[in-house]
């Protein structure tokens, strides 16, 4: 009889296919001087018995995936479990790249949607014939949103930068702009220039799905593309609004919080892939493993609907 592990080869690849995955927690180094004159460096804001002499802002290492996928059991008989830490749905797509003498509870390729804060088994895999060896390789990819969501197309969105807060709100990039909105996630995004700290308000009611607030740099190279502060809100129809390039540590809402139209979310800023203070706003949906923006209507002062276009001014 062959050892059941004979020839058992494993290859697993996890792909995180999300835009605006949350940043790590607040990143600061506090420097204290003790009674003897020595320096103590800590990430704690309060240190007893010492004098605070300096605070250094440290840039987070990068975006953080908030879906925890774990493999439990032996290589030849295991199950894959996931916990969705986001306060909104995510889709996990699993593809078997190669499999010899294996059986599974999942008909590959398979797609599984996790509800907000849900923990569940994704699939189980085992040797089909335990007298023989086997091998497998698979990939898992994580995508924000539920692919079954359907945008309520006639919904009117309030301006996320209120004219009353800035005097007038100008659309500097509208739908189908190719300057910095050339991908599907941004095709139907808009940009609104605004001084740093100007309130960014919820354009539509929903639940805060995720936030990032600890980035403080901006630039026009690729390294900045996933380093913007943001608030992501999931609407009742399953679509998601992205408010990006927010000011450092200005986010006022927490994941899981219900927000109303017009509620202040954060301050406008200049973080991430940005050439100046502005708000990047988009409504996005999961299209079967691809996050895309969708067109929407803005509400004018008289309550009528308008398609946002470059150069449009709201007073």
Protein described:
The protein is mostly beta strands. It has one helix and 27 strands. Helix content is 1%, strand content 43%. Strands 14, 16, 18, 19, 20, 23 and 24 form a seven-stranded antiparallel β-sheet that branches. The chain has a four-stranded mixed β-sheet with strand order 1-11-7-9, with no helix packed on it. It has a four-stranded antiparallel β-sheet with strand order 5-6-10-8, with no helix packed on it. The radius of gyration is 23 Å and the shape is flat. Mean pLDDT is 87; it is low at 1-10 and 14-26.
Which spans of ≥5 residues are poorly predicted at pLDDT below 50? 1-10, 14-26
Q: Give the DSSP E fraction (strand runs of 2 or more residues).
A: 35-45%
Reading off the top of the CATH hierarchy, the class of the largest domain is best stated as Mainly Beta
The overall average pLDDT, rounded, is 87
* CATH-defined fold name of the largest domain: Glucose Permease (Domain IIA)
**CA-based shape:** flat
Q: How far do the termini sit from each other?
A: 81 Å
Brief description of this entry?
The chain is an all-beta fold. The protein has 3 domains: 9-20 and 72-144, Immunoglobulin-like; 28-57, no CATH class; 156-314, Distorted Sandwich (Glucose Permease (Domain IIA)), CATH 2.70.70.
Provide key terms for this protein.
315 residues, mainly beta, Immunoglobulin-like, Glucose Permease (Domain IIA), seven-stranded antiparallel beta sheet, four-stranded mixed beta sheet, 27 strands, disordered N terminus
């Amino acid at each position: 009889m062959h050892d059941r592990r004979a020839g058992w080869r494993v290859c697993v690849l996890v792909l995180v296919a999300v835009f605006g995955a949350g940043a790590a927690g607040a990143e600061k180094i506090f420097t204290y001087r003790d009674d003897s004159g020595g320096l103590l460096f800590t990430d704690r804001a309060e240190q007893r018995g010492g004098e605070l002499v300096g605070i250094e802002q440290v840039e987070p290492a990068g975006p953080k995936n908030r879906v925890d996928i774990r493999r439990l059991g032996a290589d030849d008989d295991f199950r894959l479990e996931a916990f969705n830490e986001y306060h909104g749905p995510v889709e996990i797509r699993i593809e078997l790249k190669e499999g010899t003498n294996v059986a599974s509870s999942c008909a590959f390729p398979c797609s599984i949607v996790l509800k907000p804060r849900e923990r569940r088994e994704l699939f189980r895999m085992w040797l089909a014939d335990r007298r023989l060896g086997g091998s497998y390789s698979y990939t898992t990819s994580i995508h924000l949103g539920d692919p079954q969501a359907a945008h309520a197309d006639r919904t009117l969105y309030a301006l996320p930068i209120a004219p009353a807060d800035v005097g007038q709100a100008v659309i500097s990039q509208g739908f189908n702009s190719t300057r910095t909105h050339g991908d599907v996630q941004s095709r139907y995004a808009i940009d609104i220039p605004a001084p740093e700290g100007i309130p960014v308000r919820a354009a539509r009611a929903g639940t805060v799905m995720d936030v990032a607030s600890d980035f403080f740099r901006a630039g026009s190279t690729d390294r900045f593309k996933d380093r913007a502060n943001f608030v992501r809100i999931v609407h009742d129809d399953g679509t998601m609004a992205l408010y990006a390039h927010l000011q450092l540590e200005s986010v006022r809402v927490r994941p899981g919080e219900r927000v109303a139209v017009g509620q202040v979310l954060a301050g406008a800023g200049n973080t991430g892939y940005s050439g100046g203070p502005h708000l990047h706003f988009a409504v996005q949906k999961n299209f079967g493993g691809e996050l895309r923006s969708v067109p929407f209507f803005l509400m004018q002062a008289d309550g009528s609907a308008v398609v946002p276009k470059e150069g449009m001014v709201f007073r």
